[in-house]
């Protein structure tokens, strides 16, 4: 898996349609997985990623190569996912009210694939924290790259990673303890602020 | 990567997250940007032009209603006549202001009693009250009808 630093930002020319098509082919699976981890819904993840690329194309001529193109698309996509989660909460309230007294529908098999403990714990986090965790631990971004992708300062990234790590530890530690060894050895715990 | 050594979640978390996310198969459909963005971009690009055209249409319609003519030359003539007719009241208004100004000046000067320089103008105005005897003389012409009245009254008294 190529790290963000390995992707040459100069490889894309702003406004070039061919380069945008190439960016879509390269970045779509990675951005999709990020949103799948944040949203936990394959259909919603695809919808948000497609919307993000639509927005990205509209601003493609204004993109500056000083930031990696994939981080830029990630930023748009994460913002789209945050908006989606916000509206989904409102929809859930309406759905609960409509379903009062009726049995819940069976789960979608496509969604079951993303229902692991870890992904469930990720989805329980606020989207901004979950995005920071996925960008760090799945895509291998450092704090600076996450800051570029999320449009925040590196200090904020460190804070979010720390908060997300604490919450994930609290949510996952019992199940992790059933494995071969401790996943969170307290003596080796460090800080996210040293990138 | 040295950064993972400092992560509180540890390398095992990285492995588990990668394993779970690798199991997620991206849903590939036709890229939405190939079909959607262009009409939207074109529509918003021409929105200012449409706004300008509609504003110009409204202006032309109102001018047609006001002048009764579809000829823009008539509209400009009408505008010129309106503009030329407007300035005449303003010169009339300006002479009124100087008249009001001297009246206002004495009223302001008593308010500024503190500065000593304000007093001399009051003294200079003092002669004007001395001229007020002229209004005092006004009874003289008024006396001309009065004598007849006085005479009559005197006669009346008699």
Features:
heterodimer, A: 195 residues, mainly alpha, 8 helices, 64% helix, 0% strand, globular, B: 158 residues, 11 helices, 75% helix, rod-shaped, disordered N terminus
Whole-angstrom Rg of chain A: 18 Å
Count of individual beta strands of chain B: 0
Rg of chain B, rounded, reads 44 Å
Shape annotation of chain A: globular
Unreliable segments of chain B (pLDDT under 50, ≥5 consecutive)? 1-5, 107-127, 129-133, 135-158
Structural class of chain B: mainly alpha
Give the end-to-end Cα distance of chain A, rounded to a whole number of Å.
Answer: 20 Å
Uncertain stretches of 5 or more adjacent residues of chain A: 110-114, 177-189
Average of the residue pLDDT scores of chain A: 79
Largest interface: A-B, 49 and 31 residues
Q: Main beta sheet of chain A: strand number and arrangement?
A: none
Shape annotation of chain B? rod-shaped
> Helix segment count of chain A?
8
Estimate the helix proportion of chain A, in percent: 55-70%
Q: How many helical stretches of chain B? A: 11
Largest sheet of chain B: none
Report the order of strands and helices of chain B: HHHHHHHHHHH
Distance between the termini of chain B: 133 Å
Estimated structural class of chain A: mainly alpha
Please tell me the overall pLDDT of chain B: 65
- Strand content bin of chain A: under 5%
SSE inventory with pairings:
The complex is a heterodimer of chains A (195) and B (158).
Chain A lengths: L16 H23 L2 H17 L10 H30 L10 H4 L4 H7 L3 H11 L5 H8 L3 H24 L18
Helix pairs in contact in A: 1-2, 1-3, 1-6, 2-3, 3-7, 5-8, 6-8, 7-8
Chain B lengths: L1 H4 L4 H13 L14 H9 L1 H21 L4 H14 L3 H23 L7 H7 L1 H5 L1 H5 L1 H5 L1 H13 L1
Helix pairs in contact in B: 4-5
Describe this structure in words.
The complex is a heterodimer of chains A (195) and B (158). Chain A is 64% helix and 0% strand. In chain A, α1 packs antiparallel against α2, α6 crosses α8 and α7 crosses α8 (154-177). Chain A is built from 8 helices and no strands. Chain A has 195 residues and is mainly alpha-helical. Chain B is rod-shaped, with a radius of gyration of 44 Å. The model of chain B is unreliable at 1-5, 107-127, 129-133 and 135-158 (pLDDT under 50).
């Amino acid at each position: 898996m190529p790290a963000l630093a390995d992707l040459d930002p100069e490889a894309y020319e702003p406004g070039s349609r061919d380069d945008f098509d190439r960016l879509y082919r390269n970045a779509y699976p990675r951005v999709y997985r990020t949103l799948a981890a944040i949203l936990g819904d394959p259909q919603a993840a695809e919808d948000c990623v497609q919307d993000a690329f639509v927005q990205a194309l509209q601003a493609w001529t204004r993109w500056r190569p000083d930031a990696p193109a994939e981080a830029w698309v990630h930023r748009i996509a994460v913002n789209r996912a945050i908006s989606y989660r916000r509206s989904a909460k409102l929809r859930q309230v309406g759905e609960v009210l409509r379903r009062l007294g009726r049995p819940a529908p069976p789960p979608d098999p496509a969604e079951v694939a993303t229902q692991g403990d870890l992904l469930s714990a990720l989805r329980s986090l606020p989207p901004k924290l979950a995005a920071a965790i996925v960008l760090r631990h799945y895509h291998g971004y450092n704090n600076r790259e996450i800051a570029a992708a999320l449009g925040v300062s590196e200090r904020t990234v460190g804070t979010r990673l720390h908060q997300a790590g604490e919450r994930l530890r609290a949510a996952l530690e019992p199940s992790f303890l059933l494995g071969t060894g401790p996943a969170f050895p307290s003596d080796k715990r460090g800080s996210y602020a040293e990138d | 990567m040295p950064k993972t050594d400092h992560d509180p979640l540890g390398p095992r978390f990285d492995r588990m997250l990668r394993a779970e996310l690798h199991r997620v198969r991206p849903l590939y459909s036709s890229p939405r940007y190939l079909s959607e963005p262009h009409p939207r971009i074109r529509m918003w690009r021409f929105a200012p032009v449409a706004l300008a055209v509609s504003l110009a249409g409204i202006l032309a319609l109102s001018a047609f209603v006001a002048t009764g003519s579809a000829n823009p030359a008539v509209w400009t003539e009408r505008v010129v006549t309106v503009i030329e007719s407007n300035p005449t009241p303003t010169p009339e208004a300006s002479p009124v202001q100087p008249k009001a100004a001297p009246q206002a000046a004495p009223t302001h000067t008593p308010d500024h009693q503190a500065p000593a320089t304000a007093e001399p103008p009051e003294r200079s105005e003092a002669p004007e009250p001395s001229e007020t005897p002229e209004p005092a003389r006004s009874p003289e012409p008024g006396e001309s009808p009065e004598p007849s009245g006085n005479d009559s009254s005197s006669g009346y008294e008699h």
